[in-house]
From TrEMBL:
Transmembrane segments annotated in the record for this chain: 6-28, 40-59
Protein name: DUF1232 domain-containing protein
Keyword Repeat attributed: no
Residues of the signal peptide: none
Compartments it resides in: Endomembrane system
One Gene Ontology CC term in the entry: endomembrane system
Membrane topology: Multi-pass membrane protein
Pfam families documented for this protein: DUF1232 (PF06803)
Keyword Iron: no
Main location group: membrane
Record key words, sorted: Membrane, Transmembrane, Transmembrane helix
InterPro entries: DUF1232
Residue intervals of the DUF1232 domain: 48-78
Amino acid sequence: MSDQAWTLVVLAAVVLAVVAGFALVLLVRLVRTRRLLRRAGVPVENTLAFWGALIYVISPVDLLPDPVYLDDIGVLLLALRSLHVAAERSGLRKGPVVRDG
């Protein structure tokens, strides 16, 4: 292989590693948020987004091919957002604090 081809292969590997790392960080945040909500007494039906996202990430069926983790990251972000909304509704997480100027 030429030097240019090796450069492209290494660049693609680095991009994939960064995207996979981002997906892993989101998954860890999702698991921590789920545990927090469970301890706070949020109903189980509000945590279905967590289980759906986890099953989607693990399953071999994807909207985009596996080297592209954008769909997995999107599903994890939606599940994380859903869990945060459930936390706000349960009173566990308050909205942003507004301070007088």
